[in-house]
């Protein structure tokens, strides 16, 4: 089009003077001009092909989500409800933000009692301190016991999704070896004293949200120093590095490393090391219809390699009201002086340390009923290797020494039953029965309890009045007698009960009754337990 215009203007520029001159001469001759152009403007073809998305076909299937909220066991249940603002109602009994408490008391067996709990910090950094002390003197000569405990915990965020936990504790237990014939033997108090002290420190971090790769981690390090009144010392260090990664919505991969290292330094003699390393690996499969864990735990027990099984199966039935369970698992109980003392404080200084390796095959079930009852039961075949047995001294009888059973087989029946009604009532009972049917190196399972039953009751009878009760029933263990034979300690029943009543906003009175039936029993041969005893005192909160 532009070219056509330019041509027209050029032609008119040539002929316009001629036309002007002819017009002056009044030339009446008619002339015509024909203009021809071959230019035709067109658009270029598009170089790129444009694709137009077709709308997806409509999906008429309805998704089904099978998420089940477990029974809370409280009234009212924790169900979604609308939120409506209401005026704040002040509690006439005191400040709702009380976070500190001191509990004081005294008992008939010259038993002072002190317990305290304190918390500090804000929503970010939290510090908690717990302390308690108790001691008693029974009617038997040198029947004394004392325990002092102090622990502090701190939680603080390191970043938006990382939290640090640190703890430090001190514990001291004092016992006297009074289990001997006082008419035949005479010992000084320093010879009978067993005092154990433990200083422990712990630190670890954990992520509060999964990483972008779906990984959860919680490394932890714990170091403890243990010593007795005979200048024997033991140091323990445990490094735990668990790792968990989610694979989609169904699978979870677990990987870990645990180093448990101990060093015992006797007052006279060479030091003894006991190191245990485990490397658990497992893959979890979790759906509403099945929960399966399959894996293994390679372990090195003082350089000796063992592969432990790690298989667990759960199959929910009736909307998870009833769950069938089965498993084949293996694990260790570390053999340390500190652990042995927590089981039997009347032991002699050990000279050999071995780790108890356990393998368990079990089937069972668990479930809930009517939203408040919980129950579980299982039957298992258990194998103990290098099991520590506590054998009484057949001389004076005041102490126990440790010997190891190379292989002990047993059948275990375990059951639990519980009932919870909000914060007003809770009852829980558990039972274990063992049939020790095979020993490899020892004729009897010395010191092992074949049956025990425990029950705990917590009940708010009326407002500001609480009742607590504990029941312990067990069958006696086997011991060696002075003639080289064996006998069995009689079983025991111990019923305890306590009451606490609030008399002011920050003051409560409490009392505790132990061994109400005043039964005479022995957990360890020659060591009679305390008879009936009671404590009373007050609790202050602020």
| Total number of strands | 26
- What is the beta-strand fraction? over 45%
Radius of gyration: 40 Å
Helix percent band: under 10%
Task: Categorize the overall geometry.
Answer: globular
Amino- and carboxy-terminal Cα gap = 96 Å
- Helix-strand pattern: HEEEEEHEEEEEEEEEEHEEEEEEEEEEE
Number of helices: 3
Main sheet, how many strands, which sense, barrel?
24 strands, antiparallel
Which blocks of ≥5 consecutive residues have pLDDT under 50?
A: 1-12, 14-19, 46-54, 58-98
Average per-residue pLDDT, rounded, comes to 85
By helix and strand content, what is the structural category?
A: mainly beta
Report on this model:
There is one protein chain. This protein is mostly beta strands and about 550 residues long. The chain is built from 3 helices and 26 strands. The chain has helices spanning about 1-25, 190, 335-345; strands at about 100-105, 110-120, 125-135, 145-160, 160-175, 195-205, 215, 220-230, 235-245, 250-265, 270-280, 280-285, 290-300, 305-315, 320-335, 355-370, 375-390, 400-420, 425-440, 450-460, 465-475, 480, 485-490, 490-500, 505-515, 535-540. The strands form 2 sheets. The protein has a 24-stranded antiparallel sheet that branches. Strand 2 and strand 3 form a beta hairpin. The longest helix has 24 residues, at about 1-25. The N and C termini lie far apart (about 95 Å). Residues about 1-10, about 15-20, about 45-55 and about 60-100 have low confidence and may be disordered.
């Amino acid at each position: 089009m532009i070219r056509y215009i330019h041509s027209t203007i050029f032609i008119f520029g040539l002929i316009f003077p001629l036309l002007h001159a002819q017009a002056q001469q009044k030339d009446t001759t008619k002339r015509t001009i024909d203009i021809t152009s071959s230019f035709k403007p067109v658009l270029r073809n598009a170089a790129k092909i444009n694709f137009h998305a077709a709308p997806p076909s409509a999906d008429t299937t309805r998704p089904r989500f099978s998420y089940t909220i477990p029974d809370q066991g409280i009234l009212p249940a924790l169900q979604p409800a609308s939120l409506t603002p209401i005026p704040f109602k002040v509690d006439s009994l005191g400040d709702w933000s009380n976070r500190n408490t001191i509990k004081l008391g005294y008992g008939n067996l010259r038993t002072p009692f002190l317990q305290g709990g304190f918390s500090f910090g804000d929503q970010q950094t939290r510090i908690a301190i717990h302390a308690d002390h108790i001691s008693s003197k029974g009617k038997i000569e040198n029947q004394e016991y004392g325990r002092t405990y102090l622990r502090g915990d701190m939680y603080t965020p390191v970043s938006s999704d990382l939290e640090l936990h640190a703890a430090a504790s001190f514990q001291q237990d004092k016992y006297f070896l009074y289990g001997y014939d006082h008419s035949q033997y005479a010992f000084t108090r320093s010879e009978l004293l067993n005092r154990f002290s433990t200083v422990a420190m712990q630190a670890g971090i954990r992520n509060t949200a999964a990483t972008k790769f779906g990984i959860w981690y919680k490394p932890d390090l714990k170091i403890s120093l243990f010593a007795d009144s005979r200048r024997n010392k033991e140091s323990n260090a445990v490094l735990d590095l668990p790792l968990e990664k989610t694979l989609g919505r169904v699978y979870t991969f677990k990987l870990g490393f645990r180093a448990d290292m101990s060093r015992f330094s006797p007052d006279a003699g060479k030091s003894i090391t006991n190191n245990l390393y485990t490397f658990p690996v497992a893959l979890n499969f979790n759906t509403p219809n099945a929960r399966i864990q399959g894996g293994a735990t390679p372990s090195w027990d003082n350089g000796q390699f063992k592969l432990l099984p790690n298989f667990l199966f759960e199959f929910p039935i009736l909307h998870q009201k009833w769950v069938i369970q089965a498993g084949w698992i293996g694990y260790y109980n570390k053999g340390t002086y500190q652990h042995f003392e927590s089981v039997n404080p009347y032991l002699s200084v050990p000279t050999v340390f071995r780790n108890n390796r356990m393998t368990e095959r079990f089937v069972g079930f668990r479930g809930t009923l009517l939203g408040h009852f919980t129950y579980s039961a299982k039957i298992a075949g258990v194998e103990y290797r290098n099991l520590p047995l506590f054998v009484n001294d057949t001389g004076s009888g005041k102490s126990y020494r440790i010997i190891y059973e190379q292989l002990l087989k047993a059948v275990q029946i375990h059951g639990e039953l519980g009932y919870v009604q909000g914060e007003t009532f809770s009852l829980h009972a558990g039972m274990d029965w063992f049939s020790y049917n095979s020993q490899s190196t020892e004729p009897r399972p010395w010191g092992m309890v074949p049956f025990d039953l425990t029950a705990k009751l917590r009940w708010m009878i009326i407002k500001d009045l609480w009742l607590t009760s504990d029941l312990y029933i067990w069958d006696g263990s086997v011991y060696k007698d002075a003639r080289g034979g064996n006998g069995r300690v009689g079983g025991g029943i111990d019923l305890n009960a306590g009451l606490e009543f609030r008399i002011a906003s920050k003051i409560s009175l409490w009392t505790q009754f132990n061994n109400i039936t005043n039964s005479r029993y022995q957990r360890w041969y020659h060591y009679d337990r305390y008879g009936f005893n009671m404590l009373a005192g007050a609790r202050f909160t602020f």
